[in-house]
Specification:
Blueprint lengths: L8 E6 L5 E6 L6 E5 L9 E4 L22
Antiparallel strand pairs: 1-2, 2-3, 3-4
Length: 71
């Protein structure tokens, strides 16, 4: 995973517990990236990204407002 976006970031959203945040840009590949948030020791470090092919350029992202419970 590359550490940064190569184009302007258009969207950002924090997880319900602030442990992650996600960013969106209009890059042609891997435009949605997830980062470690403020409740972790790796603040701002890359966590994951959407795979190529399933990840068109994005201008908005949003976490669910609450943790989703398993049934």
């Amino acid at each position: 995973m590359k550490d940064a976006h190569s184009r302007i970031i258009w969207g950002l959203s924090w997880s319900n517990d602030d442990s992650l945040f996600v960013t969106a840009s209009r890059e042609k590949q891997k435009s949605v990236k997830v980062w470690h948030g403020i409740n972790t020791s790796d603040v701002g470090a890359p966590h994951s990204e959407l795979p190529e092919g399933e990840n068109p350029s994005a201008t908005a992202v949003k976490f669910f407002p609450n943790r989703v419970r398993e049934c």
